[in-house]
Amino acid sequence: MNKEISEDVQDEPVQDDLFGAPPTPPSRPTAKSLVSAADEADANPDSVDDKTSSKPSRRAGLQPFDWKPELRALGAALPPNVRLGTSSWSYPGWTGLVWESSASEQTLSRKGLPVYSQHPLLRTVSIDRSFYRPLTASDYARYAAQVPPEFRFMVKAPSLITDALVRSDDGRGKEPNPAFLSPELALQEFVAPALEGLGRTLGALVFQLSPLPWNMLERLPETIERLGRMLSALPTLAPLAPDGVIAVEVRDPQWLAPDMLPLFASALREGHATYCVGLHAKMPPLSEQLKLLRKLWPGPLVCRWNLHPIHGPYGYADAEKLYSPYDRIHHPEPELHAELARLIQTFASHGQNVYVAISNHAEGCAPLSVQSLATRIDALQPPR
Q1: Number of structural domains, the chain?
Q2: pLDDT tens track for 171-210
Q3: Are 373 and 75 in contact (CB under 8 A)?
Q4: Which of 47, 58, 229, 323 is the one with CA 20 to 30 A from 206?
Q5: Domain, as residue range, for 354
């Protein structure tokens, strides 16, 4: 461990292994040790849990893919407090990965969530449509009714609250947004309905702050103070959502500058919130973002892997054109998988909840990215 990290965490001993070698967690069966159990489950389907082992029935309508025993064993071996998932779920290209047969995007949007939530590795999903317009408590309740009790949702806050600018249809900023970081609107249009509708299935409420205009970046402490006031005004999520956490994601590296980092960390701590790691071309690499996580320890890990850096900070359209229909990996990131897996294992082994959502734009196919990450996490567990 280098001198900088040691000095930063010297008064909090548990952090000595937080970003170096992970501590030895309680023994859990690895995926390899569970493959034989999964094979036995195929022969005796009534003896195991449906979530991890039973084969899907062949009925009419949308059905889950017939996952291999190795994949089901990998899911069973993951720590229960690690929830991996994707950004939304309505992708026809996932046929043979999530869906048994092809279906339209409209059908998957309406009927795909119950099938998605049966996947052995997909224990969370990011609801992104809430970014474009607020959802009601009944909207959230319909989602919650479609998933098993252990499933948890990640939800993006409406841009009405998280964008400093009012934008035209083409995305250009027109004028300052008077509702930016409004405590009243954050509660009324986001936190209250999500908490009421999702209840115990609420995982992370993510305020993803859009890039700030230059005049606000030059006065960033004022925005941080404004953020802190909003967070402090929000209610506690427990006991309705005992695993719930409020997280803030940013899209300007200035938030993590040495002079801003302590202010940002203080606003998050005092507002009982955490930082959402944003793996995006606009932001510094994961290793740089860990500096903020150190200051917030202990606490849950929230991460959204959004866009491969090869496309640049504004490359969503390029990624969509290249990666669609999102059925295979185009640009693998093995080093990032290894780094993120170590971080996840460290948080999980200290009993902290982990929520990770991966976009198709990260490598080309989110379910395969999740599988690769899960394999890395499993490899870090000690043999049974």
Answers
A1: 1
A2: 777 789 999 999 999 999 999 999 999 999 999 999 999 9
A3: no
A4: 323
A5: 63-379
